[in-house]
Amino acid sequence: MQNIKEYQLIIVGGGPAGLAAAISAAKSGLSEILIIERDKYLGGILNQCIHNGFGLHYFKEELTGPEYSKRFIDLLSENKIEVALDTMALNLENTEDWRYVHVMSSSDGYRVLRSKALILAMGCRERTRMNIQIPGTRAAGIFNAGQAQLYVNLEGYMVGKKVIILGSGDVGLIMARRMTLEGAEVVACVEVMPYPGGLNRNIVQCLQDFNIPLYLSHTITDIKGRNRVEQVTVQEVDQFGKPVAGTEIYYDVDTVLLSVGLIPENELSREAGVEIDPRTSGPMVYENKETRSKGVFACGNVLHVHDLVDFVTEEGESAGHAAACFVQDGGCVTEDANIISIKTDSNIGYTVPQQIRVDDVEKAVRVFFRVRKIFKEPSRIVFRDQSNAEIASFKRPFMFPAEMENVNLPRQLLDKISGTELTVSVEE
Amino acid sequence: MVQEIICIVCPRGCHLKVDPENDYEVTGNSCPRGVTYGKAELKNPTRVVTSTVKIKGADLKRCPVKTDQPIPKAKMQEVMQLINAVDLEAPVRVGDVIIENILDTEAKLVVCRDIG
């Protein structure tokens, strides 16, 4: 058996979540930290996000993706954080005392590393044509929006001349503008839901600025083309999502970009036995981002898909700090009987964290969630315990599924809860 | 003629109506910020342009760039043509100026990533 190199903390993934986690853990006192990154560069998806708008919350200024990640990458060396680039994490193992990480790289071959704490920061992947089952031929010219973004922004290849975009998620909207600026014609953006999937500012600056029509409650029902995409059929859908006959619109395009959702990338987590929440497709976590597997933490898009990198950074910092506390002071102090589970009503899709260990909460717990429909009128987010007593409530003038919400639950309120369940609901 | 625009100041996305013939009067807003946005968006809409330029002498083939301040929306395509004609040589650092005073807008085209 070769020598197993030991660290206090290993972080899988060098995107915004992993970078923030590493720096935060170092500031909280850890000195042996390793970031494992499969790409040749740190920064993750930010490297191809060349548009601006990052950092409005965190830095109070608008940065491009590469500028945002540089702010963190520049802090690594002064915090003595080790980085293994071009290195793939193959497998994770969790034992009582150590987290083992099996890695592979062309420079060092196969190695086994271990650490006291592990942070999952692998990000997410795009859903594909196969995930949404669009009928038609298997012609070339069908790309995920983020994949096209990589080709255009990092490799310098244009992916098409006449483009239709399915899905109004932010990546799709950003690519509508990008393709237009680079000389392509974007004929339409098609969204199956009755409301846009992306942020308002992107609808305005990426579609309206270039007179690109947005078809809500529409979808692509057929793709034709022998070698390359030649024609796409767009149809209106009814309230059940079924295409309405007679509403067909035909577009002669050579390229289809799909922006149809993101899935947290948890193959490694699953193999390591980390419990996954089917609602987020990310690990179930406690108040400090620790998963149900002791010493394993998660943050960023691997935990739940975010729309703003600023919140990914904050989540990374929180996980990094918690991992440092775990290494220095040992595990949590809350007994199993005192763990509170957060349930949701039908208006709320999920919460992160899913569970709170009240005795381990320092001051407050920030709870993130998404609503499942549009609330245009003022409404209240209400937390009730098992005796139906109102523990906390928060007013919101409006809420949208495209915008992640968060509220802060102070420790003193958590101490008042009777029972082991807290239900969060929206009351109009 | 009264124009309808969506306010992008906050996520709410109010549908503003702006009347250029009546001193750019804004209606449909929920807060004062909507008035400011509505007037500016019709009088002189501006945008930051971000794109990439070719770069030689490094692993990466493209370097991200941006205008360091918003430029008039109407000049976006013209700025893109200038950007497309740029050939950089590594190394470059974030903030390096590639073009000064683009199209007399006072904006500079700057590098957004350390390369080489």
Average of pLDDT of chain A: 95
Specify the number of helices of chain B: 2
- What's the CATH superfamily of the largest domain in chain B, by name? CPE0013-like
Structural class of chain B: alpha+beta
Count of discrete alpha- or pi-helical segments spanning 4 or more residues of chain A: 9
Helix content of chain A: 10-25%
Q: How far is it from the N-terminal to the C-terminal residue of chain B, by CA?
A: 52 Å
What pattern of helices and strands is seen along the backbone of chain B? Answer: EEEHEEEEHEEE
CATH class call of the largest domain in chain B: Alpha Beta
How would you sum up the major sheet of chain A? 7 strands, mixed
How many domains of chain B? The number is: 2
Low-confidence stretches of chain A: none
Q: What is the multimeric organization of the chains shown?
A: heterodimer
Give the strand content of chain A. Answer: 25-35%
* Percent range for β-strand residues of chain B: 25-35%
Helix/strand-derived category of chain A reads: alpha/beta
Query: What is the straight-line distance between the termini of chain A?
Result: 62 Å
Task: Write a brief structural summary.
By secondary structure, chain A is α/β, with parallel strands linked by helices.
Question: What does the model show?
Answer:
The complex is a heterodimer of chains A (428) and B (116). Chain A has 428 residues and is of the alpha/beta class. Chain A is 20% helix and 34% strand. Chain A has helices at residues 16-27, 65-73, 129-132, 145-155, 170-181, 200-207, 267-271, 309-329, 411-414, and strands at residues 5-12, 33-36, 52-54, 63-64, 82-84, 87-94, 99-105, 109-120, 124-126, 142-144, 162-166, 185-190, 214-215, 218-224, 231-236, 249-251, 255-258, 262-264, 276-277, 282-283, 296-298, 339-344, 348-352, 355-357, 364-371, 379-385, 390-396, 405-410, 421-427. In chain A, strands 1, 2, 5, 6, 7, 8 and 21 form a seven-stranded mixed beta sheet that branches. A five-stranded parallel beta sheet of chain A has the order 10-17-11-12-13. A five-stranded mixed beta sheet of chain A has the order 24-22-29-26-27, with no helix packed on it. In chain A, helix 4 packs across helix 5. Chain B folds into two domains: 3-43, no CATH class; 50-111, CPE0013-like (CPE0013-like fold). Helix content of chain B is 18%, strand content 33%. Chain B has helices at residues 32-43, 76-84; strands spanning 3-6, 15-19, 25-27, 46-47, 50-56, 62-67, 71-72, 87-89, 97-99, 109-111. The chains are: A alpha/beta (428), B alpha+beta (116).
